[in-house]
Amino acid sequence: MILVDRLALHRVRAIRAMNERGIRLLHLADVAVIYITLIAITGITSLLRSGFNAWAHMPRYVWSYAVIALLHLAVFYFGGLYDRERRLGSRSGLPKLVALVWVASLITGLLSWMLGEFLIPRSILVVFAVVAPVGLAANRWASRWLRLRTEGPPRILLVGNEHEEKLARRHLAEEAGRVEVAGAARSVVGVERQVRELGATDVLLLDGRFLGDLYVGPLARLEEAGVPTLQVVSPRESLLGLRSVGEVGGIPFVSLSTHVLPPSQARLKRYLDLVVLALSAPLTLPLVAFVTAYTAIVAGRPLLFIQERVGRDGRLFPMMKFRTMRPDAENDSGPVQAEVDDPRILPGMRWLRQTRLDELPQLWNVALGQMSIVGPRPERHEEMLEYARQIPGYGRRHQVPPGITGLAQVFGRYYTDPEYKLGHDLHYLANWSPILDLQIMVRTAWVIVSRRG
Asked: How far apart are the first and last CA of the chain?
């Protein structure tokens, strides 16, 4: 028995060590399923078609299928298939899994067509796209089972009055063995301490009245600690048109989040920025050369206006723009917000601001990773501190790199209140996708052409 316990302990430590290095058993299991499935389909198809002689082609496929397995793994990663799964009320991920398998198979098919079917025959790929989701779904079932064995069932801290607590306990009793109630609290004051003391893995708010106290700090700290916070959906919350509602013990709930992009999406966003920079270079580089020459002639030196702005996680960085104002524009007034018809703008330079061409140097900030093409606009440090003091949760807009353009810039106006702009920024964080970035870029082009203020 002691030997078995020691082996189990070593297994748990090995799994944790792999997770810390970004390698999950699920990654290895998926690669194995993809690779073995491809080899098996090829072997069976070869036997049915032309007997054992067809195995002569297998050495080539052994290597090409390894490439295909890694390609699928990359698509799954950037598709969010390896983001840590919510343990309570998580819905079936099979539709998403099937969709990502088909996307990866389509990319594989296109590459194979370009290479003259060197990677894989089309018939093998079609069968694989139908069969593979079964094995990959089995991997996820095994992963949940292993997590339950190693971590135990979720332990919920209930937050609500006595009546709400009793009602929730009665429903959760139906999930005995799969869910445990760690304890109860009457408010969110000290909820982080109670989570630590009770060993709770999840917090369930039984009423929405606690959101105000939870919003500013505790929610972010719980999320950083890996403790999901959930809120029960009452009839009045259903009026908001909620779409993603989970369920545990018959209790409907929504998952609360500070909208931090998971690592897979953050990396995907960064790679997309680099792709856009590369594809747009034939257009942007001549524009940069033209505006540089124009600024040198009209405004003189210095060509660039460099100012410290607040970037991701509150870090300061030197944001660059072509200079459109006098060099001493803020000597007397100090840092002030620019106006639409600011008298400090030099003659002949106003159109650069209206067309946003003065912001072209920020493409270099994007290349360095200090900014993104799309994201909340970077603020001055002094303004950020003032906004953070006045508007609860303002700092959450710094969870992603600031952008050259953003949702607040294309749907708001120059004079839009910072709190309303924050609403746009947080909406962007909650709903980020490559398609949303593309929509904002296209709309930005329209805003520039129409010169909307």
From this structure: 74
SS3 content of the chain, % helix, strand, coil (to 5): 60, 10, 30
User: Percent of the chain scored above 70 by pLDDT?
Assistant: 84
Residue 159: in which H helix or E strand, if any?
A: strand 155-159
Task: Return all residues near 365 (Cβ < 8 A) that are at least 6 apart.
Answer: 317, 319, 320, 371
* Three-state SS sequence of 409-423: HHHCCCCCCHHHHHH
Tell me the per-residue pLDDT of 198-221, one tens digit each, with 9 for 90 and over.
999 998 888 877 777 777 678 878
Report the side by side order of strands in the sheet with 229-232. Answer: 180-185, 155-159, 202-205, 229-232, 251-256, 246-248
Query: Based on the number of CB atoms within 10 Å of its own CB, is 334 exposed (0-12), middle (13-18) or buried (19 or more)?
Result: exposed
Hey, what are 238's tokens?
């259903």
The residue count for the chain: 453
Gap between the Cα atoms of 143 and 134, Å rounded: 14
d(CA 197, CA 180): 15
Q: Give per-residue pLDDT as tens, 327-380.
A: 766 655 555 565 556 667 788 888 888 888 899 999 999 999 999 999 999 988
Q: Is the peptide bond before 302 cis (omega within 30 degrees of 0)?
A: yes
CB distance 407 to 427 below 8 Å = yes
Question: 88 pLDDT band (50/70/90 cuts)?
Answer: confident
Topology at the third CATH level for domain 155-256: Rossmann fold (3.40.50)
Q: Which pair of tokens denotes residue 281?
A: 């270079």
Structure tokens at 250: 């018959």
Residue 1, pLDDT > 50, answer no
Structure-token match 């299928």, residue found: 65
Q: Which of 84-88, 364-368, 412-416, 420-424 has the lowest mean pLDDT?
A: 412-416
Better-scored residue on pLDDT, 246 or 192: 192
Residues 6+ apart with CB under 8 A from 382: 335
| pLDDT band at residue 7 under the 50/70/90 scheme | very low
Helix, strand, or coil here: 287? helix
Q: Token pair for residue 221?
A: 């700290």
Specify the pairing of strand 180-185 against strand 202-205. unpaired
- Going from N- to C-terminal start, the domains of the chain cover 2-151, 155-256, 263-450
